[in-house]
Amino acid sequence: MVSEDTVLDTFPDSPVTTAALSELENHDDILTAIPLISEARGAKELSKHAVIQTDSVAIVVVYNDGEGWTVDHRVDGTDRDNDEVFEEAMVAAQGETSLVDAPDEK
What we know:
It holds the Pfam family DUF7964. The structure is a single chain. This protein is α+β, with helices and mostly antiparallel strands. The protein has one domain (about 5-95). About 25% of the residues lie in helices and about 35% in strands. The protein is built from three helices and five strands; from the N terminus they run H-E-H-E-E-E-E-H. Strands 1, 2, 3, 4 and 5 form a five-stranded antiparallel beta sheet that branches. A hairpin with a 3-residue loop joins strand 4 (about 55-65) and strand 5 (about 70-75). It is globular.
């Protein structure tokens, strides 16, 4: 199992490339690593906002200049369906925007 700190320790002290996020998915313990917002800088696309998911947790990470990478939101995935955990993380990540519909209340 990969901890949140271990994931964040792999990030540079700067926005991360979208290619680096894609490479994280090659790790056996990482289910999803996607940029939420990215911008082109030269030949690279950089992201300051991403969702990283393992079997046990989904985290929304944000890069802030001077502070580095921090966990903005955490969704516990223990004994839960991975798709539901991912959806909840995406809803939390979108904030006030409406990129993803909120899950139905049960």
